[in-house]
Write a structure and sequence with these properties.
single chain; about 270 residues; 3 domains; 9 strands; about 25% helix
Length: about 270
């Protein structure tokens, strides 16, 4: 294992390597994005790139919506990115343009998405993830690559990100008599929707995740309080709540999304 020194170098048993050296080494061995796309994007045999203007003749509505998305700002009409525009993801379209058949164009393949979003592919390979690489969930189940709504929180699906979550997780939407306020901030406050090393795709382990919001300066004392309620001592005349050894917040507050019974979200 290497060790980072104060000067920012990575020290190993054989010497020191600067971060710039590591970056250059990675660039030398890793393929460029264009090379990665060339390998990832499927192609119909015999097809050639024809340009977005050919696609627009039949798909004018999709082309107009596409111009509202971040995909268009990145790809647009850049021919150096595998034909640019539509063909960057759908592959060369000459055969489809002649036949008008759906089988003659690439409609969806996760590897097409991963050719640009390589970091997301890495997240899908973590212990807890949505089963995209397994083929049980599609990127397009949550993201609309052509853009149908406008919401800055998610520049690809162009809609409020929670709405994508609630399409499957309807029971989490509510409304609840007692809301968990963090739900107003969005599911991604607590969950990484692509994948995580933590159970339930949380962004941190359970206790630390809760304490990101529910903390007070004295919470680490023998009479520590969380949410103005003492949690650090055994229950007694003062009405304290005792957290047993090895217990998590979720062991007591089970209704973390909201409750119709308990203000404290116990169930």
């Amino acid at each position: 294992m290497g060790k980072v020194t104060r000067g920012g170098e990575i020290r190993t048993a054989s010497g020191c390597f600067s971060p710039m050296f590591i970056i250059c080494l990675a660039m030398f061995f890793c393929p460029s994005q264009a090379d990665a796309q060339e390998k990832a994007v499927q192609k119909i045999e015999g097809a050639e790139y024809v340009g977005t203007e050919t696609c627009v003749t039949c798909h004018e509505e999709q082309a107009q919506r596409f111009k509202l998305t971040s995909h268009y700002r990145v790809l647009g009409e850049k021919e150096e990115v595998l034909g640019g525009g539509c063909e960057s993801c759908h592959g060369p379209g000459s055969v489809h343009a002649d036949s008008q058949s759906k089988k003659d164009i690439v409609r969806y393949d996760p590897e097409n998405c991963f050719s640009c979003h390589m970091d997301r592919k890495g997240e899908f390979l973590l212990q807890h993830h949505h089963p995209v690489v397994e083929g049980r969930v599609k990127c397009t189940d949550c993201h609309s690559p052509h853009g149908t709504e406008l919401e800055t929180m998610n520049t690809v699906s162009m809609q409020k990100s929670d709405q994508s979550c609630f399409k499957c997780h309807k029971e989490m939407k509510g409304p609840f008599v007692f809301e968990h306020d963090v739900m107003r901030e969005g599911c991604q406050t607590c969950h990484n929707p692509h994948g995580s090393v933590y159970d339930k795709m949380l962004v941190a382990d359970q206790a630390n995740l809760c304490l990101r919001c529910h903390w007070e300066p004295s919470f680490n004392t023998s009479t520590g309080t969380i949410g103005a309620i003492q949690h650090g001592t055994k229950a007694g005349a003062g009405g304290d709540y005792y957290i047993g050894k090895g217990q998590e917040c979720i062991d007591h507050h089970r209704a973390v999304h909201g409750s119709n019974i308990w203000k404290t979200l116990n169930r």
